[in-house]
Design a protein that fits this description.
The structure holds 2 protein chains of 2 kinds.
Chain A lengths: L1 H12 L2 H51 L22 H5 L5 H13 L11 E4 L19 E4 L16 H6 L4 H17 L4 H6 L1 H6 L5 H30 L7 H29 L5 H30 L5 H36 L3 H46 L4 H13 L3 H24 L9 H6 L14 H25 L6
Antiparallel strand pairs in A: 1-2
Helix pairs in contact in A: 1-9, 2-4, 2-6, 2-9, 6-9, 6-10, 6-11, 6-14, 9-10, 10-11, 10-14, 10-17, 11-13, 12-13, 13-15, 14-17
Chain B lengths: L1 E10 L2 E11 L4 E6 L5 H8 L7 E6 L2 E2 L4 H5 L2 E4 L11 H13 L5 H10 L16 H14 L4 E5 L7 H16 L3 E6 L2 H7 L2 E6 L2 E7 L5 H13 L1
Classes of the chains: A mainly alpha, B alpha/beta.
């Protein structure tokens, strides 16, 4: 086998079209990796920013709670708002602050002292990026990777950012997973559609068949040599990209993920090679082979996944997240409008109060606004909360159904693998949302238990408060699902290969 | 070395070969003459096991080719009518590739160069891409390929068609050289002149049957032509 491999390699080395194809594949892979990486970089930077922000917020609140300046003396001596906190904020955070930041921190310092205001501080949860985030954008375009948590949200965890590019939401971003799922088979078609028929048309097949070598072994070697170039090109670009972008490949978890990605890539490429093997075994012309393989590509990469997605979407309908967000925004706008109306009436009320010496009118206005919020908007808000809960359930069932589809579609299997490895799969996003929801519920439950709003906080209160501890997306990977995907691809590869093995006769002249 | 016993090949209702009995001994050049469709190439394809016989047996070095397909190919050198090699490789690289297929190891470069010398391929062509070769040059490489695996028998399918007189002459010289080296050669050809010149025995085929076998030395050019034409017109 080894001498055959060496000879096939020498033969391939002289083929310029092959190298041009690999070069094009390498460039596209690098481009897709770059796109994925720039997104991953943004996510990582945001993650880092949030971590710093939350750490500083905790530090500030802790310092504010420990500050005794407002606790000493009788209540009337307490300063409700301090112009400057009694600590040097720049020294506290160990960095220089802009005037805007200083102003914000001053407000937060005063805010943090009351139990009532604590729940309204801007706590955040965030999905920690995977080390191989660059491999796939996944569902990150459609699902928020961070949430703002405060008391006003009343248990809702959805606040999805609006979609900037609706077209992209339909076709997905050109990331590495899309390249592998959709375009890689086309490269296999280019390289392998004529790996036997080409020899027949060129006339070299007769001379090959007159040699005392197993024809099946020869063509198998040829197939493996040609296809290994494709796999190695993609892997080389990806690994080089990861090294250049500073990913620590000595980390065991990252290495395992990279190993699983490589296995899936090999299995998916082998599947398309097996299709080429089967079609070449039929003894047709190269053009016919190319047409047949392209038809297989259309069916297996376009029609079948699209059809299955449609069926799943039909069975598990979900309200688009931006539609829910729009509804929520409408309600917020109504509340804002009602409050503005109340403020606009306030001076008139004062005049009336002075004139009439009574506060009855002002109180009536305030009560009307509160009644409007409670009676009119409350049920709507609850309705949205229920809808959001339903969306979670529907997305979960849709995610499960799509995972199950992976068994019936190699394209689904490879896409699912890339999404999982990158930490951007739908199931991981749902899991993150669920954990945020749980954290939010815990936080609210804790805050509800705190005593009267006029009391000040103690350090113990703060220490007992639930803290969101994000797990890296890569750690929530379902290895079982990944193994199933690889097995699925292997079985899909074996079927056409075995049929081709039986059909491959040496008499292909 | 090459033998067929009651060999029959049918394509559906059409008979391509009808009870062919043929023997080619080492050092003998058996030329199969006949019109297109007479069964000459079918006979060669059967020796190479490219097609399966309908009935009868084909032997190479006393091995049945249908049962020992790969082993028998070790003894066979095959020169098709159009020798097609890999155009992007040089003559030497093509020889190396095909020689490695049969020998399952990479032959030494010096040995390959020696083979190309033996078939009289000009040295300046060895490292030129085969895409620039003439038919005669490609044939020489194909003979070198056969020699590289120590073939004991050669199957030549219309080897001189399309060759210029000089190249034809060179080819005949090569065939004579192979004959002198005790190779058994079965050559299918339309070229009566070359058949008479290189062959030791001549066989005239018609409608899948060997209708006449004669010693090449026992007949003159003109008589051979007349005999051939008579068979074709019958």
């Amino acid at each position: 086998m080894l001498p055959l491999l060496r000879q096939e390699w020498r033969l391939l080395r002289a083929s310029k079209p092959y190298w041009v194809t690999l070069l094009l594949l390498g460039l596209l892979t690098a481009l897709a990796f770059q796109i994925g990486w720039s997104r991953a970089k943004q996510t990582a930077e945001r993650d880092q920013r949030y971590r710093v922000e939350q750490a500083e917020l905790h530090l500030l609140v802790k310092e504010a709670v420990q500050d005794q300046s407002t606790r000493e003396g009788p209540p009337e001596m307490r300063r409700p708002m301090m112009k400057d906190p009694p600590v040097d904020l720049e020294k506290l955070f160990n960095r220089s602050l802009s005037d805007i930041e200083k102003g914000r921190f001053r407000v937060l310092w005063n805010f943090a002292k009351g139990r009532f205001s604590l729940p309204h501080l801007p706590w955040r949860t965030w999905k920690v990026p995977s080390s191989l985030e660059a491999l796939s954008v996944g569902e990150s375009d459609h699902w928020p990777s961070y949430y703002s948590i405060d008391r006003r949200r009343q248990g809702k965890t959805f606040s999805p950012p609006s979609l900037f590019n609706p077209f992209q939401s339909m076709i997905g971003a050109l990331d590495l997973s899309t390249l592998l799922t959709v375009l890689l088979p086309l490269f296999v078609i280019v390289v392998l559609h004529d790996f036997v028929s080409g020899d027949r048309e060129q006339g070299t097949l007769r001379l090959i068949l007159s040699q005392n070598v197993s024809f099946r072994k020869l063509v198998l070697t040829r197939l493996l040599v040609r296809v290994s170039g494709i796999v190695l090109t993609v892997l080389l670009v990806v690994v080089t990209g990861l090294i250049l972008t500073g990913i620590n490949l000595s980390d065991e978890h990252t290495l395992r993920l990279l190993g699983m990605f490589s296995l899936s890539l090999v299995a998916y490429t082998l599947f398309w090679s097996a299709v080429a093997w089967l079609i070449n075994s039929l003894g047709l012309t190269s053009v016919t082979n190319a047409i047949l393989m392209t038809m297989c590509w259309v069916v297996l990469v376009i029609v079948l996944p699209l059809g299955m997605s449609r069926v799943v979407a039909g069975r598990h309908p979900v309200i688009p997240l931006n539609a829910l967000a729009a509804k929520e925004n409408e309600i917020r706008a109504s509340v804002r409008k009602a409050r503005e109306q109340q403020r606009a009436n306030a001076p008139q009320n004062e005049e009336r109060r002075e004139r009439r010496g009574s506060r009855q009118e002002g109180n009536r206005q305030e009560t009307a606004v509160n009644s409007f919020i409670l009676n009119e908007l409350g049920p709507q808000r609850q309705g949205i909360a229920a809808e959001i809960a339903q969306v979670f359930e529907n997305h979960q069932s849709r995610s499960d159904a799509l995972d199950a589809c992976g068994i019936w579609s190699p394209a689904f299997a490879i896409k699912n693998t890339c999404d999982l490895i990158s930490g951007n799969s739908l199931s991981q996003s749902i899991e993150f949302s669920r954990k945020t929801g749980e954290f939010h519920a815990d936080l609210l439950a804790y805050l509800e238990k705190l005593p009267h709003r006029q009391s000040t906080l103690t350090v113990e209160d703060l220490q007992n408060m639930p803290v969101f501890l994000p797990a890296p997306a890569a750690r929530t990977i379902s290895w079982e699902r990944l193994r199933t995907n690889v097995m699925t691809l292997a079985i899909w590869s074996a079927i056409p290969f075995l049929i081709g093995w039986i059909g491959f006769r040496s008499r292909l002249l | 070395m090459l033998k067929t016993i009651d060999l029959v090949k049918q394509y559906g209702s059409q008979t391509a070969l009808q009870s062919l009995n043929l023997t080619v001994e080492p050092g003998e050049v058996f030329c199969l003459l006949g019109a297109n469709g007479a069964g000459k190439s079918t006979t060669i394809n059967l020796f190479l096991n490219f097609i399966a016989p309908t009935s009868g047996q084909v032997f190479v070095n006393d091995l049945d080719v249908t049962k020992h397909s790969q082993e028998t190919k070790q003894f066979l050198g095959y020169i098709p009518e159009q020798v097609m090699l890999y155009k992007d490789l040089t003559g030497l690289e093509n020889l190396e590739y095909f020689a490695s297929l049969s020998r399952r190891r990479r032959p030494p470069r010096e040995e390959l160069k020696e083979l190309l010398s033996r078939v009289h391929l000009a040295e300046d062509a060895w490292n030129r891409r085969v895409g620039t070769y003439s038919k005669g040059m490609r044939q020489k490489v194909a003979i070198a390929i056969a020699l590289s695996k120590d073939a004991k028998a050669f199957l030549l399918d219309e080897p001189t068609s399309g060759l210029d007189p000089k190249a034809s002459n060179e080819f005949s010289a090569l065939v004579n050289q192979l004959k002198d080296n005790r190779m058994a050669i079965l050559m299918a050809t339309h070229d009566l002149f070359r058949a008479k010149e290189s062959g030791t025995r001549l066989g005239i085929m018609k409608h899948g049957q060997l209708v006449e076998t004669l010693q090449a030395g026992s007949i003159g050019h003109t008589d051979l032509e007349q005999l051939y034409l008579r068979h074709m017109h019958d």
